[in-house]
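The instructor's notes for this session suggest beginning with a concrete chain rather than abstract definitions. Hand out the sequence below and ask the class to guess, before any prediction is shown, which regions might be ordered.
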Amino acid sequence: MKRVLAVDDTITFRIMLSNCLKGGGHEVIEAADGKQALEKLRETQPDIVITDLNMPVMDGLDFIEAARAEGRSLPMLLLTTEVAESLKQRAREVGATGWLTKPFDPAQILRLVDQLA
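After discussion, reveal the predicted structure:
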């Protein structure tokens, strides 16, 4: 069982992701934006993070950049509807482990959690 931090401002999507992860036997910690995710990251020590890109308060790229600046080396995946190459390049620059597109494939998410965390 892995501890997964799931970050998304859309509650419906967060619930779908959480149900997928829990169905795979993982513990899920939820956050609604990057700022809240940083707090949860400090409090809970997850094994892996799956975060949305576009969120209020702090987006996924700024969240990953801030977490890496704190020395966090855990895997961090972006899960988004965005496809722009410039965003993918910035994701690599801030230290994202991978880029996945919505809607997600539950089997792929579970496989990545098992492989990376």
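Then share the key points. The chain has one domain: 3-107. The first helix runs from residue 11 to 23.
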